[in-house]
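Structure Section — protein described below
Tokens — whole-number codes for backbone shape
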Amino acid sequence: MAQLLRCYGQNARLRLLGRQTDMPGFWSALDIAVSTSVGEGFSNSIGEAMSCARPCIVTDVGDSASLIGDAGKVIPPGQPQALIDAILSMADMPDEMRLELGRRGRERIQTCFSMHAATEGFLNLWKGMLNHTQHTG
């Protein structure tokens, strides 16, 4: 991918960092988080990036599109030109627009995917199952 971006003149803005252990620091240092998965369930890495208010670009696999919502860009998997276009488009956004995408993503994670939201979802599911069992059993 680095070679593709360099072809488009982005080499001064791209950094390949290797293995990282300080994940909150890593995510917070990014301008844009990108997931190019061809198969995915719920992407913890994208959730972490969103929690750190990083704007994200994801491929439309698994739960990635529903995770991102309107707080990033979703592209088809296996389409490198769409990926390049999305990265360049987001990189060319005014800083405030990128920061706003990141803020929306963080708010989305806190509202929809927090431990509290997950707990409420499970409790509602179980209550619904119990009510269904009581009415049919």
